[in-house]
Amino acid sequence: MDIDWDELRSSATEVAQRAYAPYSRFHVGAAALADDGRLLVGCNVENAAYGVTLCAECGLVSQLHATGGGRLTHFVCVNGSGTVIMPCGRCRQLLWEAGGAALEVMTPEGVLSMDQVLPQAFGPEDLR
Fold first, then answer.
1. Paired residues of 34 in beta bridges
2. This prediction's pTM
3. Which UniProt keywords apply (predicted)?
4. Which region holds residue 123: left if phi is over 0, alpha if psi is between -120 and 50, else beta?
C-alpha cells in the first residue's frame, strides 16, 4: 500500500487548529490510517487541572474504537504549525496498543516502525 504521508500530515495539521489549548497554547494534531483504510484524527484538549489533559493521540485512538475498532497502520503527530513532533511516552504506549510493532510512525527523523519508536514495549502479552 502506497501511503501519502503529505496528505496524512495535512490532516493532522488541519485538526491541530481545532485543539483546545488555552493554557499552553501548544496545539497538537494527530492523524492515522486504520487497517481498513479509515482516516482517524485527534487534537489535544486541555483542562485547568493539567493532569487530565487529553493528548491528540488519545482522541485519535478513541475515534478508532468509536468507529469500528481495528488496528492503526500509519501515524503522524504535528504541532500547530505542521511540524512533525514525537508522541510523549504515555502516547507511545497507547499507540503500541492500537497498532503494535509494525505501526509506521512519521517522526522528525523519518518513518520508523513502532518497535523502533518504543523498543522493548510492554504490551498485552506481558499481562499473561
1. 72
2. 0.93
3. Hydrolase, Metal-binding, Zinc
4. beta
Between CA 69 and CA 87 the distance in angstroms is 21
Cell of 33: 490510517
* 88 Rama class: left (phi>0) / alpha (psi -120 to 50) / beta: beta
Output the nine-digit C-alpha cell for 59.
482522541
Question: Which one of the listed residues 7, 14, 46, 57 is annotated catalytic?
Answer: 57
What gap in Å lies between CA 29 and CA 82, rounded to an integer? 8
**Is residue 7 annotated as part of the catalytic site, yes or no?**
no
Residue 76 phi, psi (nearest 5): -145, 145
Q: Quick check: 61 and 34 in contact, CB under 8 A?
A: no
Strand partners, 42: 30
